[in-house]
Fold this protein.
Amino acid sequence: MIEKIQSCCLSVLLLFAAASCSQKHDHHGKTPLVELDGQFLYKEDLQAALPLGLSADDSVLFASHYIRNWSEELLLYEQAKRNIPDREAIELRVANYRKALIVHDYQQALITQQLSEEISEEEITAYYNAHSELFKVEKPLIRGLFIKVPLKSQGLSNVRRWYKARTPEAVEQLEKYSLRSAVKYTYFYDRWLTVSEVAAMMPLPVDEADAYLRRHKQIELKDTAYCYYLDVSDYLPVGAQEPEELARPEARSMLINLKQVQFFQRVKNDLYERAVQRGRIVYLESQEP
């Protein structure tokens, strides 16, 4: 119903404009609404731009503004064409931009057709090992174990002993204890977290966390409600070699880009060689200076 109201209002508002449109012009099935020096604004384009859910009055107002903007932009464009002295330079830039768009779309089509295979895990590992200098830690990282328990919990002496031990038995005891008493338990001996991520779990200022965790590997803190225990098994400062498990997404992206560059270089070389063999490239002057 709303669409019918909008359409009706637009038609009434713009009927006078449609009457002035050239009857001999081929509009390719579209309905002309406004003509300005042989340029047309079509009803279908206006309807496509019309936001959904507008009232009938708002639809009429939107249509009025849209036509005004269309007319002003077209008039400004025509004025600019008459007053820009170096039209050839602009046409050259437009042609270069058009060529770049066509080449880009063609390259994307070739990528889809020819480079759709996944990069293997072995390729990623080989690339990481061969270019390890490219992968550096940008934020300090740690591995370890963290547990947060209420201040008045039972068995805190056992927690202190278990979190320092790092043995499978101690970890198992901590996991069991966390199920019934811990507010938060995070096992990350097998993965890297940023220092800021871990500092956010504790009453430890983020801006001081890096320096603090460099000096302390087993940390016990408490506030008025909780006890916090952190065991740091590994620490990596900024600039250190980034672990492979973290570098793999970036290494994969680099490898894909490299394969694309190599692929397109082969495509260009093949096109050039075929053009030379078929005599399509003709030097009209000597290549000597």
In short: The radius of gyration is 34 Å.
